[in-house]
């Protein structure tokens, strides 16, 4: 049997239901209000430049996707509608609790204002139309140039009942790095929040024992923040001394 040529392959029908978003529907593209929070220079992956060395005038903006307009596609709309109704039952307007809804790279993310995080998470867990029983932990992110919300916490949630996945994202400023703990809603977040505190410095208010889990108790700073110094010690190799990373020659 011979395989089809490139011309034949390009004319074959495409099964869009097998190659697109949730439940075979195309999610909407992010709106054009993507936020530029910084610029990276001297790195690979930049388009529009003949310099491929990585050390030249490569410039790439750092952007965060903007809010996505409806419809979102697949079960995303059902989840958003059910969450809107569930939040309203607590006497809170959806727009007061949710900053924006983003569909990006096939994932649905609710950006939650931090003071409303426990209530939103509880509704997502308990509402029969939602039933996101499992929180897969919390991931810290540090955007030093995202002024006023430099620290982000991201929570992947899964509904075992409905076989669905979403994400919650919360931000806090460096000057006030406090986010309510979800230990009371998802107890398995215990050590995840400790790890995020250890590495990023996010303080999870209400956590029963927010202590370091990887670094020594007397360690200074939070090693996975972008502004954390690389440090290190010199290394001797074949009679030469290699300086620590933060003392080596820079190319940018």
Would you summarize the structure shown here?
It is a peripheral membrane protein. This protein has 252 residues and is α+β, with helices and mostly antiparallel strands.
Keywords summarizing the entry:
single chain; 252 residues; alpha+beta; two-stranded antiparallel sheet; 6 helices; 12 strands; 19% helix
Question: Secondary-structure map with pairings?
Answer:
Layout: H1 6-11, H2 16-19, E1 35-41, E2 59-64, H3 76-89, H4 94-97, E3 98-104, E4 107-112, H5 117-126, E5 134-135, E6 139-142, E7 151-159, E8 164-172, E9 178-180, H6 190-200, E10 203-205, E11 235-237, E12 240-242
Parallel strand pairs: 4-8, 9-10
Antiparallel strand pairs: 1-2, 3-4, 5-7, 6-7, 7-8, 11-12
């Amino acid at each position: 049997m011979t395989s089809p040529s490139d011309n034949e392959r390009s004319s074959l029908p495409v099964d869009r239901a097998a190659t697109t978003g949730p439940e075979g529907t195309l999610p909407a593209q992010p709106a054009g209000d993507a936020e530029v929070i910084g610029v990276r220079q001297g790195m690979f992956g930049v388009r529009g430049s003949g310099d491929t060395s990585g050390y030249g005038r490569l410039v790439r903006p750092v952007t965060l996707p903007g809010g996505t307009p409806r419809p979102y596609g697949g079960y995303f709309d059902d989840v958003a509608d059910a969450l809107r109704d569930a939040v309203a039952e607590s006497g809170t307007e959806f727009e007061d609790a949710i900053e924006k809804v983003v569909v990006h790279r096939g994932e649905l993310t609710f950006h939650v204002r931090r003071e409303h995080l426990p209530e939103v998470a509880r509704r997502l867990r308990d509402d029969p139309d939602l039933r996101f029983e499992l929180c897969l932990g919390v991931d810290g992110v540090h955007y030093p140039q995202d002024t006023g919300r430099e620290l982000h916490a991201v929570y992947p949630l899964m509904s075992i009942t409905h076989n669905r996945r979403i994400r919650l994202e919360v931000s806090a400023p460096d000057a006030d790095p406090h986010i309510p703990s979800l230990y009371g809603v998802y107890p398995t977040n215990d050590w995840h929040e400790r790890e995020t505190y250890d590495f990023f410095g996010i303080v999870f208010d209400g956590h029963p024992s927010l202590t370091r889990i990887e670094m020594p108790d007397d360690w200074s700073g939070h090693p996975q923040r972008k502004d954390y110094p690389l440090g290190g010690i010199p290394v001797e190799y074949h009679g030469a001394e290699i300086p620590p990373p933060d003392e080596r020659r820079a190319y940018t």
